[in-house]
Design brief:
The chain has five helices and three strands; from the N terminus they run H-H-E-H-H-E-E-H. With 107 residues, it is mainly alpha-helical. The chain folds into two domains: 33 residues, no CATH class; 69 residues, Multidrug-efflux Transporter Regulator, Chain: A, Domain 2 (Orthogonal Bundle), CATH 1.10.1660. The protein has a three-stranded antiparallel β-sheet with strand order 1-3-2. The longest helix has 15 residues. The protein is elongated. This is DNA-binding protein.
Amino acid sequence: MLGFRGHFSTRSRRYSTTLGDIRAERQEHARHDKITTGRSYPALEVLMTSELLTVPEGMAALKVSRWTVYCLIRSGELPSVVVNVRCRRIPALALDAYVTQLCEGAA
């Protein structure tokens, strides 16, 4: 985060970037990429007919840690959607499908 000849938060526009530039670039990135980690969203019909669970509710349902839930989301085993920029939700149908897949794999 160090700019040329100065700290990133210095006011010198000539030698380093400003916090406003960093914020603007982050917002632009969030708008275009939606920070989805490359996962595709479930179909809109599935979202409209299913309940959306928060990550802590998913943790409670699976009885696992927050870290494990986020690892499942990152690996693509547990689909999720991003509401706004920071709110991640897990469709209840996706959670049911994941548990069914685990049960079939164990059999």
